[in-house]
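Researcher: Following up on the earlier apo prediction. This time include the ligand. It's adenosine-5'-diphosphate, with the SMILES given after the sequence.
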Amino acid sequence: MLEQLQIKNLTKRFGTVIANDRVTFDVRRGEIHCLFGENGAGKSTLAECIYGTYRSESGTICFNGELVEFNSPRDAIQLGIGMIHQHFVLVPPLTVLENIIVGTEDAKVLLNTQKAENKFKELCARYELKLNGHAAIWDLSVGEQQWVEILKALYLDVKFLILDEPTAVLTPEESDKLFRILNVMKRQGISIVLITHKLKEVMQSDRVTVMRKGKIINTVDTKSTTREQLTHMMISSELAVQGLKKKINSESTVVQIKKLDVRGPRGGYAVKDLNLTLNSHEIVGIAGVAGNGQKELFETLVGIQSPESGEVWLDTEDITHWSPAEILAAGVGHIPQDRYREGLIGQLSIVDNLLLGMHRSPRFAQRGFLDQERVRAFVQEQVDQFEIVAPSIDTVVGNLSGGNAQKVVLARELFQASVVLLANQPTRGLDISIADYVHRQLLEKRKEGYAILLASEELDELIKLSDRIVVMFKGQIAGEFVADNPDLEQIGLLMAGGNL
Ligand SMILES: Nc1ncnc2c1ncn2[C@@H]1O[C@H](COP(=O)(O)OP(=O)(O)O)[C@@H](O)[C@H]1O
Ligand SMILES: [Mg+2]
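Model: Understood. Below is the ligand-bound prediction.
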């Protein structure tokens, strides 16, 4: 029998939301099967139904050819089904080995510790993983923790493993390594369901199933499909940005960052001796794992932080020690990394948030008073233009979805900025259609001549949008690439702290 798992017409609701709508889905023995779709498409819900966390209202699940009904994950685990969740469930103070055997019979019998350690070592060898069984979880990197999660499943002799977006937190090298591990599992006959929204990973699978709004759109052989077809299946309308980015000759320097040193929160240097130039009509992408000084660099450029030394020039002016208000007034917009903590005031309305920093603008204020009519007309215009979905312009921003909240930040910053746009992770956590909207806005501003600095952890995004890509590692520029056809391996290596 080819199929190890067969699901027919499975439906699962949460209140009025149909998270899985008559889903029919099968997984073949020993294949890597990707489940691909936007946020909220219903992927995790389907996985939890297979794993026994949720019970579906209707539909059937067959495993190894037999009809099953799981009351809890315990039932699924007993049949050899394992799942690695989006968020780690390891216990930080315990060691690697303790985490792997916790909950198994081996944890109960002291004598079995040696047996457990032997099995652990054997698994490490088979999967080419270097892990110290006696290290505490909190001393491990995120990547290493991911390997522990996998070993934990393998220790239970899983025959069927579901991984829910495991690579969201991995560097490109680590994600390659994950695929090497998955391929070893596959050769052992283990079936794998990998939930991801990264096309690069989907393309390495055997088959892919695309979900959209709770429904299965299609299941295809990966070999016989393309990235474009998959994207098209995933989003309802054709939104692909491809082709929008045309080479524009940019010659005039807009921003010059010279030998910048910025202190980090823990006293050391977050940014060290950084030099970078931004030209008009250009998007410079910063690749790098978050926490390598991107936040401090952006905050220095917008005046929130003061550098210890070095200079920032905007055209012919030294703006190194200008205030945020002065920098904003000079035409520099900022889309911050954390839109709720830095970009918006959650308790205030869309009107008030859109007006932040513009209260004294002659456009809205007359003799010190805001012209409410003008203000509301302007806000409504912005809401329409950016297609912000909200009950009214007086809705409190904290009640908007992430995508709509980000559009408020975007509307305000794009309106105020006139020469430079600084965007730090502007699409993090957004649906692909809204991310695409943000991309279009950035490319539009590039066409208008803005100099744009864009930091992102998604290499695909940087390649799609940037003219140049620089890699940031430990506060420094570790390398620079032309974004036409960059060497991804080299970029990944630099992101992880390696040398070329
Ligand atoms: N525990 C829950 N309670 C209520 N609604 C939920 C719950 N889990 C998921 N949903 C809703 O079900 C839909 C599908 O979510 P999910 O399966 O998490 O999607 P995905 O994993 O593809 O991002 C979404 O609209 C989500 O808001
Ligand atoms: Mg999910």
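Model: The domain at 253-495 is CATH 3.40.50.300 (Rossmann fold).
Researcher: Noted. I'll compare it with the apo version next.
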